[in-house]
Amino acid sequence: MTTRIAIAGGGLGGLTLARILRRNGLDAVVYERETNRAQRRQGGMLDLHAESGQHALAEAGLTEGFQSRARPEGEEHRILDSDGRTLIHHVPEPGDFSGRPEIDRGDLRDLLLDSLPGDAIAWGHRLAAATPRPGGGWDLAFHDGGHADCDVLVGADGARSVLRPLLAELPLSYVATLVQLTVADADRRHPDLAELVGPGNLWCVGPSRILSAQRMGDGSLRVGISVHAEDRPVADFGDKRALLELFEGWNPRLTALIDAAGEPEPRRIEATPTGARWPHRPGLTLIGDAAHLMPPVGEGANQAMLDAAELAARLVAAPGDPDAAIAAYEEAMFARIGPIAQMSARIQAMMLSPTAAEDTVAFFTREPAPAG
């Protein structure tokens, strides 16, 4: 009898899981709330780590496709202080995919989407509730009134997971405010800023705040501003004048990134408790942000994709006993994620400390740098 696997959420983790399961002959369907792949802009670029994100793509049979779209030169990473002095400048080896090459999130999602048959994704299906069936498995209810059922249900539905409360109450803590802006067509319209950022990532670090930028594949610059969660209400950061006030006294060459950008998009950065876990429940588990939401310091997408690869491997190896596969996946995932979540929280706090520049230099000179 075929085990029917439902995946709630069509982000990178959910799509990776569906691809590996389908590649190995297991029946998996992704239920995605968006109505089509172009409904929402997919964000900045990601650095994919060899041991996690790239490993998952290898399991998915997509290494060649990834390397054709990725930019190894995007691993270049510059860290400056508020006066514009260079603190660290990492330059990767040309064409080297063994480190952490960058890829636009949208390009990576398209790679995964294109690898799946049309019947693997149910667009426009926003999960409202999941109810256990008496004989095992789950009944799914969607916001449009539709229903479906499955034998195994995987929550890949992100920070506000509908399925997480069925396993554990994991309160989200508000750890920072992130404001994102875009400088369009930087090479032509703002060549000085394009040169400042370079082909990869730029961090400008000052007391209790950071101004960052990254080069996108379309030639735009994705600008980010991070401040303490309690500094001001999130809505206050929708005004560029308020953003520029945050960086009063900084080198104008750096704050020009804000001047040149479009409208700010502020949002809360939240995290689940480090070390969080839940008791095993038959036929249900979580991957990615639904399982372990962390500050965005380079691990989120990588760990989501690794979750997918490891869960898929367990399910493929034990197709007749999915509950044993899920239990084994969860124990291994909890052990792996604990130290990574602690490190991510430490990096987030370090970058927003009063001595952020000094702390960042000390960190990057004693540990491998998580760019991106």
From TrEMBL:
GO MF terms, alphabetically ordered: FAD binding; monooxygenase activity
One Pfam assignment: FAD_binding_3
Enzyme class (EC, first level): oxidoreductase
Essential cofactor(s): FAD
Record field: catalytic activity: a tetracycline + NADPH + O2 + H(+) = an 11a-hydroxytetracycline + NADP(+) + H2O
GO biological process: response to antibiotic
Recorded superkingdom: Bacteria
Domain FAD-binding: 3-318
Keyword terms: Cytoplasm, FAD, Flavoprotein, Monooxygenase, NADP, Nucleotide-binding, Oxidoreductase
Subcellular location: Cytoplasm
Enzyme Commission no: 1.14.13.-
Subunit structure: Monomer.
Domain notes: Consists of an N-terminal FAD-binding domain with a Rossman fold and a C-terminal substrate-binding domain.
Family: Belongs to the aromatic-ring hydroxylase family. TetX subfamily.
The name this protein goes by in its record: Flavin-dependent monooxygenase
